[in-house]
């Protein structure tokens, strides 16, 4: 076990994890010394076998390392070195190597395959060794035999390192020839010659041992082949064990005494076994370079399999999104709370002031009707009317403030908090939706009221100048006959700057003018604006100019103006006198979704739809709009005549964004600043997200079909990226656009043109209940918008 322990110790010391083991040599020497026939050969053969068996045992238990054992054998006979593993008995030369010490030239080193191989070689050595008969020993060893076992081991984790990175240990089993007295052996001739050589070499060995004990002066290693070969082992840099054999016979007492003298001398030699690092500087540098490159490649592989920067960026992005959504939820909750409290207040006011009206409103449109039809009443009673005027000052820049009055006045509970986000871009649709809804409700309520309340006044008002806004002038309640009441028999009365003119319009006249008004608005040059506030103002300005133009055209112009206000969901004053006899049909002509009528009557609607669609698709691309938004919109609006207004709104929104970005300006959206650059980044992120979803959402066959359809090679490593890059990128090819939409829809979830989605775009014109969820976009919907 001495060998196994030795190897283990050396292995542990050198195989620190993470670095290769440097090549080293660990020497072990065991030899038997004693007079002839005292049992040296007998002892050494046993020790050799047990030692090798022990080493094999150790190897078996240490599978984490790979061991290579090499075996060589020599004999020193009459001061000649001979290879016992070779048939050739030519003496071998001894060479001096600066690194390895004395080496035997051309010595055969057999790599041990297994135990049997070892025993075969031992047997060969016994056959080859010089043995002779003497008086004392029938089979006396006439030579010194040195069996050398070299064991090389390396940890399996360092496979691939060169030889210099493994551990090398060697052990020498030495069976010396016995010292003999000629008088005792009666040798003569050859035996005598052998005996003299044996004795001389043993004498040198004794001298070397003695010198080593004192460590003084010259040590005559080179005086004999034996000491020269064993120099590295005897010199102290090895573990050395000596077995001294003696004969118990009284006749051999002199020899025994000499042996004990040798043993006592040898015991005083202090050895200092060290692991000899045999790596040269050059090999060391080479080794370190290899180690560095190995670690570098490991690092590269690691970063490729786990892109740290990507993951970090993704996490940061997700955190931002979560933060943003939280803020939105808080904002919406706050608005709802405020709106609810306002509605309660208003309900209280209405209850106090016009109980009969409340009964009627609640009957048909609980709560919501309060806002829609009695904003001023509420405002006046709660002192908010002045606040509204202030808002108007903010919204309008002087003359044309028709829309601004409406912006703060008409909508559901939200709009009363006029300092909220009404003027930000994402609320455009919402406001339009709300306004349109309010218009519908206004008309519907008017119908209802005309039937049920008979004489109830519905108040809306158009102002071209906010300075005209005077509660006394504009406010008409059910108890105060309005000036319009005198003319209300004829139908609608439009009040503009206090001037009220009768409008007797047939529904066909109204319909005709819608197209003109819409186109006029759509084509009107947008002013350079920095924010959506200005965008709203601009819309109002356009309407105002439209209105002025139509005024010059007389009665029909009036109708156009009226329609334009309806279309823009603006706030015309429509008064219905207490005695008016307006028919339901006429009200509906005015109050119904104008685009519905528009679409129905548009003779060339299909081609018009295609034109709008194409223009929108191109603007989406130019503005780097979200692919999901494009998809939803594209799939939602497929050419129904009622789609016209949605498309018109989207077109205007996109034109505005394009113009703003082209001027280097930014847009505030959901409290976030949106620039041309940030839109591009957002779009890139979205494409990355879609790329990831391809594997998750589509089966293998679906993916392959899709790649083939898009002309992508299945063998390409980048086919996913190429596909995602191609989505929505060819705006000229509407077929490809449709395919893009279908793919995106599939990746993010199916899209049905249902009500919820229309609400998502804030374009639902239908009256909605006043539950919290129905007001505008929900947080998540907003996010998608
Ligand atoms: N421990 C032992 N038990 C039994 N027999 C032994 C023992 N030691 C030696 N012998 C026997 O003694 C005889 C001499 O032994 P061996 O050849 O090993 O002596 P030696 O010291 O090597 O002699 P030489 O120096 O002449 O080669 C052999 O026949 C051997 O079998």
TrEMBL record:
Residues holding ATP: 34-41
Sequence segments annotated as region (Disordered): 462-499
The keyword ATP-binding belongs to this UniProt entry's keyword annotation: yes
Pfam family, any one: Kinesin
Polar residues biased stretches: 476-492
GO biological process: microtubule-based movement
InterPro entries according to UniProt: Kinesin-like_fam, Kinesin_motor_CS, Kinesin_motor_dom, Kinesin_motor_dom_sf, NACK_C, P-loop_NTPase
Annotated Kinesin motor domain residues: 1-269
Superkingdom field: Eukaryota
GO MF annotation terms: ATP binding; microtubule binding; microtubule motor activity
Coiled coil region boundaries: 278-342
Gene3D superfamilies per the UniProt record, alphabetical: Kinesin motor domain
Family indicated by similarity: Belongs to the TRAFAC class myosin-kinesin ATPase superfamily. Kinesin family. KIN-7 subfamily.
Protein name as annotated: Kinesin-like protein
Species name: Lupinus albus
């Amino acid at each position: 076990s001495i060998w196994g322990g030795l190897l283990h110790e050396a292995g542990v010391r050198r195989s620190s994890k993470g670095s290769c083991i440097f090549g080293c040599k660990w020497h072990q020497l065991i030899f038997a010394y004693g007079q002839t026939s005292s049992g040296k050969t007998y002892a050494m053969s046993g020790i050799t076998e047990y030692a090798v068996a022990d080493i094999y045992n150790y190897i078996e238990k240490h599978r984490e390392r790979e061991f290579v054992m090499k075996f060589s054998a020599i004999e020193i006979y009459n001061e000649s070195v001979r290879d016992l593993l070779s048939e050739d008995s030519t003496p071998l030369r001894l060479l001096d190597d600066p690194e390895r010490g004395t080496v035997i030239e051309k010595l055969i080193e057999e790599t041990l395959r297994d135990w049997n191989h070892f025993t075969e070689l031992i047997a060969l050595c016994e056959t080859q060794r010089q043995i002779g008969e003497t008086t004392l020993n029938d089979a006396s060893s006439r030579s010194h035999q040195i069996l050398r076992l070299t064991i090389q081991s390396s940890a399996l984790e360092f496979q691939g390192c060169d030889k210099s990175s493994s551990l090398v240990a060697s052990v020498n089993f030495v069976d010396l020839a016995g010292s003999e007295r000629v008088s005792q052996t009666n040798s003569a001739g050859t035996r005598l010659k052998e005996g003299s050589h044996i004795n001389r070499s043993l004498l040198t060995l004794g001298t070397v041992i003695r010198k080593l004990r004192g460590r003084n002066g010259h040590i005559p290693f080179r005086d004999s082949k034996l000491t020269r070969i064993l120099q590295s082992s005897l010199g102290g840099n090895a573990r050395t064990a000596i077995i001294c054999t003696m004969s118990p016979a009284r006749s051999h007492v002199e020899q025994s005494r000499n042996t004990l003298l040798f043993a006592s001398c040898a015991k005083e030699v202090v050895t200092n076994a060290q692991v000899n690092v045999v790596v040269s500087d050059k090999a060391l540098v080479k080794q370190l370079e290899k180690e560095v490159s190995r670690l570098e490649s490991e690092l590269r592989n690691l970063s490729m399999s786990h892109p740290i920067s990507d993951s970090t960026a993704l996490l940061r992005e997700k955190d931002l999104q979560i933060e943003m959504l939280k803020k939105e939820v808080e904002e919406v909750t706050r608005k709802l709370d405020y709106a609810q409290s306002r509605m309660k207040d208003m309900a209280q006011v209405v209850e106090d002031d016009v109980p009969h009206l409340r009964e009627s409103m609640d009957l048909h449109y609980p709560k919501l009707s309060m806002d829609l039809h009695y904003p001023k009443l509420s405002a006046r009673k709660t002192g908010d009317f002045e606040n509204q005027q202030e808002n108007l000052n903010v919204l309008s820049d002087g003359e044309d403030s028709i829309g601004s009055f409406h912006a703060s006045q008409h909508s559901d509970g939200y709009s009363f908090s006029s300092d909220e986000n009404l003027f930000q871009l994402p609320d455009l649709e919402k406001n339009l939706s709300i306004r349109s809804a309010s218009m519908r409700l206004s008309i519907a309520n008017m119908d209802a009221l005309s039937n049920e309340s008979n004489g109830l006044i519905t108040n809306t008002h158009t102002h071209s100048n906010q300075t005209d806004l005077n509660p006394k002038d504009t406010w008409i309640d059910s108890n105060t006959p309005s000036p319009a009441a005198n003319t209300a028999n004829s139908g609608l009365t439009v009040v503009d700057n206090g001037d009220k003119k009768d409008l007797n319009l047939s529904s066909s006249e109204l319909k005709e003018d819608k197209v003109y008004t819409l186109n006029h608005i759509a084509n009107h040059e947008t002013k350079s604006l920095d924010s959506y506030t200005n965008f709203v103002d601009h819309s109002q300005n356009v309407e105002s100019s439209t209105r002025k133009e139509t005024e010059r055209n007389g009665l029909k112009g009036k109708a156009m103006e009226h329609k334009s206000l309806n279309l823009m969901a603006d706030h015309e004053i429509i008064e219905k006198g207490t005695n008016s006899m307006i028919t339901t049909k006429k009200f509906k002509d005015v109050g119904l979704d104008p685009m519905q009528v528009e679409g129905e009557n548009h003779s060339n609607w299909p081609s018009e739809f295609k034109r709008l669609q194409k223009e929108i698709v191109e603007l989406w691309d130019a503005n780097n709009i979200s692919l999901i938004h494009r998809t939803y919109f594209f799939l939602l609006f497929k050419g129904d005549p009622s789609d016209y207004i949605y498309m018109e709104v989207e077109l205007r929104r996109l034109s505005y964004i394009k113009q703003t970005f082209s001027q280097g300006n930014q847009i505030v959206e959901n409290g976030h600043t949106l620039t041309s650059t940030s839109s591009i980044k957002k779009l890139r992120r979205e494409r990355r997200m879609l790329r990831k979803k391809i594997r998750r959402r589509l089966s293998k066959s679906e993916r392959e079909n899709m790649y083939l359809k898009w002309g992508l090679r299945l063998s390409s490593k980048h086919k996913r990226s190429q596909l995602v890059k191609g989505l929505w990128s060819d705006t000229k090819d509407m077929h490809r656009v449709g395919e893009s939409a279908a793919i995106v829809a599939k990746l993010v979830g199916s899209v049905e043109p249902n009500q919820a989605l229309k609400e998502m775009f804030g374009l639902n014109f239908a009256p909605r209940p006043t539950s919290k969820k129905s007001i505008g976009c929900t947080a998540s919907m907003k996010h998608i918008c």
